[in-house]
Amino acid sequence: MNTIVALQPAWLREGAASFLARYEGLRARLPGDTAVREAGAAAFRARGLPGVRDEAWHYTSLRPLAETRFAEPLTAIAACDRLMARLPAIDAPRLVFVDGRYRDDLSVVPGAVAVRVGGPAYGSLAQPERDNMVALNTMLTGDGAAIEVAAGADGGTLLLVSLGSGGTAERPIAFHPRHALHLGRAARLALIEVAIGEGVYLHNPVLEATLEEGAVLTHLRLQDESRAAFHLATLYADIAAGASYDGFTLAVGARLGRLEVHARLAGRGAAAHVNAAQLLGGRQHGDVTSVITHDAPACISRQTVKNVLSGHARGVFQGRIAVARDAQKTDGYQMNQALLLSPDAEVDSKPELQIHADDVKCSHGATVGELDAEQLFYLRSRGIAATDARAMLVRAFLGGALEPIAHEAGRRALEAAIDQWWESEAA
Amino acid sequence: MSHAADPAGTVEAVTRTPYKWGFATEIETELAPKGLNPDIIRLISARKEEPAWLLDWRLAAFTAWQAMAEPHWAHVHHPPIDYQDLHYYAAPKRRAGPARLEDVDPELLATYEKLGIPLRERAILAGVEPAAGEAAPVAVDAVFDSVSVATTFRATLAKAGVIFCPISDAVREHPDLVRKYLGSVVPQGDNFYAALNSAVFTDGSFVYVPPGVRCPMELSTYFRINARNTGQFERTLIIADAGSHVSYLEGCTAPQRDENQLHAAVVELVALDDAQIKYSTVQNWYPGDAEGRGGIYNFVTKRGACRGARSRISWTQVETGSAITWKYPSCILAGDDSVGEFYSVAVTTNRQQADTGTKMIHIGRNTRSTIVSKGISAGRSDNTYRGLVRIMPKAAGARNHTQCDSLLIGDRCGAHTVPYIESRNPTAKVEHEATTSKIADDQLFYCRQRGLSEEDAVNLIVNGFCKEVLKELPMEFAVEAQKLLAVSLEGSVG
Predict the structure, then answer these.
(1) In the beta sheet, which residues pair with residue B267?
(2) Does a structural domain hold residue B20?
């Protein structure tokens, strides 16, 4: 055992050991590039599961996950009608994965986009030696989609759907889909990821997105997992000169959810929007962690992350903007706002700037507070019921984050999810 | 390349100015053998004629330290430190008897003269009142290597009931106070460097201001590391009893040496009901040369406890020295309506590294804190602001506002901002703002066009950038700090 793992508490080590044992049992049957998989396994053996002493996981303890023993998803899968009915009504082709496996019968294969499924789609951006959960994914992944949009093509809208269905409290399951996306020069795509489910499971997806020069990716994510599930997603995006990544994640589900984004602005004039909103209640824990690296001059990054927290929920935001020495004329902006709706909610925020160039314009801000009593009073005095007034103010708080989403159908789907969250909170 | 278009060049020129306080004093020094073990701790304790409880306290700290690992989360890099290769006790040899000024080695007094520290109470002894407009007298406690060599104005202060003396004297003369408060804010096992300090601290200042007393003058401690291969581990304890008020200044320098020297101090402040403590630091330890050789490793734990209702602790620091700074003066706002403030200017040039900031822990109701941090990086230095604002569940109505600005001079330096914001009370309001920029060409052009030299223009702009912090310093310190800023950045432009 190496020193990193040796210093960890026993429950964390045992959690990692159970994944390693699973790998030993399955390795002969797992598809795809064995060299990549072996490297992932070696990284996971060395690093284990991340603990809170790991700065990147300071505010998110994986203890409940480490203490759960996950099984493989069963091959015979129950019908998914109920989950399919929850999909947002967006008229577009879709790739549907159930418990991490591609389901041809539920998918509608796109025309404008080349898709390869059956086995993991390893890309070149992932860093399993640094990112523990990616090492785990690399080691145990069974399936994924490789999506390719040819140079100059407009791929339209594509849904990438994950349904979690087969896990129960007695037999929780884990799945680790591995997707890759490549947009050729000046290609366009709107990718809408939806993760929904029932029961107890770990969904640990990795997506590696490469944007060639001038490509434009709109990336909307709706995370509405089972409230008993773990959702730990990692996204890598490499954005070439003049290309634009425009991302928004709405997280309302999962018992413990985390999105980790590593976006690299690799060429002059590249742009990244890494926006997110988390609406959490009960004992949910949600984490948005991002590292936006400016590696080239004159790039723009924008990030707005909003948290609305009720019950005993805990919202975490860790965002770093790193500006390399050569990335002069960088324009970076980061805003994190949290609304605490209950006395037991907690927010932890770490907006971080790491700057090595001098001709830059970088700023960040963070605010934490409750609903403005005066605004509430104003609405109440005009005869609006307390719950409606609160809903109105919360929606206004989130409005700023949702507004820039240009994809009409996608934005409506996210708004619908927010309305639904609010109804279940009020009930 | 024209001057006006090259602020980086000016910065470079500024940073070439040699360190002015780099002389060493040839003085007979009593050194303990190198290394750290219980015997050395017993030796320190014996030399200081300490009571048994304090020796036990030190040994407990040592045991805690042995089980701890050096922290690595800060954004600083240095070769591993061999803690066994240091002298943990260095004292100027002095003649027998109490430390009356006449007994102090003249070499030593000359050193302080060179540094411009008014050790002798000349004016007062001569019965001369300070003329109007002249700075008010300042009581000074001077710490040379590990030992307090002289404290001035003790008699005047005693009349007001204020105790201001070396902590080693306080251990003997006011054991109850020391025993009650020592380690009550920074416990022995608080962190790696605080544990080390607790085990081996040799001297430092002790202040007690009785209830309702407004300390009649500024108190000041002057720290000087002189001997080679020594660490300085001073410990300062300031207690402001109910309704009292005290302002305390701290200054530091060290000779220019090629090896790195360790400075691991602990400062504890306690403010009871309605008490106010203002703690100002101008830290100018030797920063190392342009290539990063030598310089002080400044690993300091400073923390204040606002224990009483409506108490207030205010930290103001101007950090220009040290090869590495690792320092987070903090406030624990336990009393209802208590206030914590942190005003900081940190300047790094050459290859200096600073990771500094604060922690504001809001425990009581309606507690308020303000953080203003100005970081200036030049040369090949790295300057990090790292700050924590934590709102505990009972801190209803708590408020924090944080403003962090970074200024980059040159394209080989780094400026980093790492705030941690943790809120567990919905009625609390926390705001954080940070910006990073360079000296704008139009600002420079404007000043140059009005006949200011490149250097004066940069000084003016930097001073303006730091104004919010400098205005918090006591007047005579503010002047010194402005000069220091100018000297630190001298040659950075042009």
Answers:
(1) B236, B302
(2) no
